[in-house]
Amino acid sequence: MNRILFFYIFLSFVFPIFAEEGKYTGAISLSEKRILQAKEEWLKTNDFPAEWKLYYKGKEGDFVVFYDWNGHEIHYQYRRNKFDLDGETFVKDLFPGNPYRVTGVWTGYYYFGFDARGKRKAFHEKKILPANREEFADVHTIPVFKLIKYEEIFSDELLY
After folding, report:
1. Which residue in 160, 136, 156, 143 sits closest to 26, CA to CA?
2. How far apart are alpha carbons 106 and 104 in whole angstroms?
3. Is the separation of the CB atoms in 27 and 101 below 8 Å?
4. Please, which pLDDT band fits residue 1 given cuts at 50, 70 and 90?
């Protein structure tokens, strides 16, 4: 009987936290710089931040993907190729939806160009620095970094 009660209490506390598939959003302030704001500042100053406070989304190939409050993404290369086991070990502690302070070296961006009919292409072109001002300022462009370090941001709030 005690085991059943304990199991019920355990489930009632665990599942509300993960009910939105890891999209806890309390640890990063709403006033933190967004990716679109940084792109606008880059147009004026040619300076793009190396450190971000972002939420982890998941892995895509040799990259880990983070997103900001608006849902815009930054891709961080964490391994050289699929055989790089050190890279896998480096990012093994990342958990989807958790907030992180991420530092990297800006290496380029993904640009979703336009086809002959003027419609946006479904696949991106990888561009390296220096960035084209018109392309990089586009809303759909995704900055690409080489991952240097990350650390989880812990909240002082109680989760229940």
Report:
1. 156
2. 6
3. no
4. low
Q: Rounded to an integer, what distance in angstroms lies between the CA atom of residue 73 and that of residue 124?
A: 14
pLDDT tens digits, residue range 27-42?
788 888 899 999 999 9
Contacts of 41 (CB under 8 A, 6+ apart): 47, 48
Task: Read off the pTM.
Answer: 0.76
Tokens representing residue 6 in the block: 């304990």
Tokens 């793009």 correspond to 48
- Using an 8 Å Cβ cutoff, are 58 and 132 in contact? no
State the Cα–Cα distance between residues 151 and 149, nearest whole angstrom.
7
Q: Which two tokens stand for residue 126?
A: 């990888």
81's CB contacts (< 8 A; 6+ apart) are 62
* DSSP sequence for the chain: -HHHHHHHHHHHHHHHHHTTSS----SS-TTSPPHHHHHHHHHHHS---SEEEEEEEEEETTEEEEE-TT--EEEEE--SSTT-HHHHHHTTT--TT-EEEEEEEEEEEEE--B-TTSPBPSS-EEEESSPPHHHHTSTT-EEEEEEEEEEEPPPSSPP-
